[in-house]
Amino acid sequence: MFGTSWRVARIAGIEVRIDSSWTVIALLVTYSLYLRFSFLYGSLSTAGAVGLAILGAVLFFASVLVHELAHALVSQARGIRVQDITLFLFGGATRARVESRGPGDEFVIAVVGPLTSALLAVLFGAIDLLGRGALGRPLSGMFGYLAWVNLLLAAFNLVPGFPLDGGRLLRSAIWKGTGSFGRATRIASTTGQGIGWLLVAGGVAFLLTGNLAGGIWFAFIGWFLVQAARSSYQELQLRHLLRDVEARDVMARDLLRLPPDLTLQDAVDGWFMRYDHGAFPVEEHGRTIGLLTLRGVRRVPNHRWATTQVRDVMVPLGDQVVVSPDTRMDLVMEKLEDGQAGRVLVVDDGEVVGIITSSDLTRWLQRWRTFERRAV
Ligand SMILES: [Zn+2]
Fold first, then answer.
1. Which of 72, 91, 95, 373 has its CA 20 to 30 A from that of 39?
2. How far is the CA of 64 from the centre of ligand 1 (A)?
3. pLDDT, tens digit (0-9, with 9 covering 90-100), for 80-137
4. Active-site entry in 15, 68, 246, 283
5. How many CB atoms lie within 10 A of CB 313?
6. Which residues pair with 5 in a beta bridge?
């Protein structure tokens, strides 16, 4: 769901990231605020309107961040580790390590987001009303605008389509009623897709009546919701499927090993250029002692490849993410998503017997789907 993202802060141990798509929306929001403020307050200079627009945009995104932090902090208070918060095209997303443990957890974690946005709306509204004299019209007007935006954020997030907060509330209610997490997710996700399509239809209706901006906006949000609902359900299905699969079933076992005293030049010519692997185990006296990765080789300037040995560049085994052959693949997938290395080593009896990368998992899934279809 996410493309490239940058790490910008760390709050209460939670990593805050910004998705690349967010820069587009940040510019759009600032620009539309500038248009709005210079239209509403004719007394403002251009610089004044730009400054107010930037301040408004910063407070807008701070509001989104506070909404997400509320989810994250309540999750953590309930013992569910939060991976990170990513601000992207339409706001924020909080990635929790584990799906909520029960409908009660899910309800509280979901409801606190819209509640926080509603509180922010009240706060900004109060600043607008009480500070009108002291702040002057344009500044207090900006706070009034932020109050509306937060109210809208609360309302939109309460739409009962998964993965929006409202969809999570719906899921927790069905989960509580039926006792089935899978069925609850399926219903909430179907509702999410349904509401998404309704928004797309609304957008098309707007377009037909000549409201171009409104039409594109509705259709875009609707399409986003359809995709998000679909992909979060697929991810859940994938996790279920992988629970019955072990690391040994997915790992690449045809490991080609390198001697440690080889030069990098020979490693590149004889291994990296010949085989489609991003890393090779390094073996000495029949034991694996490390891993030579493509990233490691790239860090050494080309002119030193002929004089540098594999031993000096390899990553020691101790620094690798290691699992045993019978580790469940849903857990391996979590490690793959978590880790910086992008690979997990499968170790049996102290010896590396396989490597799993995301592309190994993808290829395995493709094979699985081929046979699944044949079976049906
Ligand atoms: Zn939320």
1. 91
2. 9
3. 878 788 887 666 677 665 566 788 888 999 999 999 999 999 999 999 888 877 777 7
4. 68
5. 19
6. 19
Q: How far apart are the CA of 338 and the centre of ligand 1, in A? A: 22
DSSP state of 270: I
Sign of the torsion angle spanned by Cα atoms 48, 51, 53, 59: negative
Ligand 1 center–CA 166 separation, angstroms:
8
330: DSSP letter: H
Give the residue with greater pLDDT, 59 vs 341.
59
70 band by pLDDT with thresholds 50, 70 and 90: very high
Partners of 281 in the β-ladder: 291
DSSP E strand stretches across 90-165 = 91-96
Q: What is the distance in A from the centroid of ligand 1 to the CA of 70?
A: 8
Helices (H) and strands (E) in the chain, counts: 14, 10
If residue 113 lies in a helix (H) or strand (E), which one and from where to where? helix 103-130
Ligand 1 centroid to 126 CA: how many Å? Answer: 23
Burial class from Cβ neighbours inside 10 Å (0-12, 13-18, 19+) for residue 47 reads: exposed
Return d(Cα 98, Cα 334) in angstroms, integer: 10
**Which distant-in-sequence residues (6+ apart) come within 8 Å of 122 by Cβ?**
147
At 135 the three-state DSSP class reads helix
pTM of this prediction?
Answer: 0.70
| Helix or strand holding residue 355 (H, E) | strand 351-357
Spatial separation of the C-alpha atoms in residues 96 and 231, rounded to whole Å: 16
Active site residue 68: yes
Among 347, 346, 324, 321, CA closest to 334: 321
pLDDT at 173: 93
Average confidence (pLDDT) over 20-24: 81
Contacts of 41 by beta carbon, 8 Å cutoff, 6+ apart:
49, 137, 138, 141
Omega before residue 281 within 30° of 0, cis: no
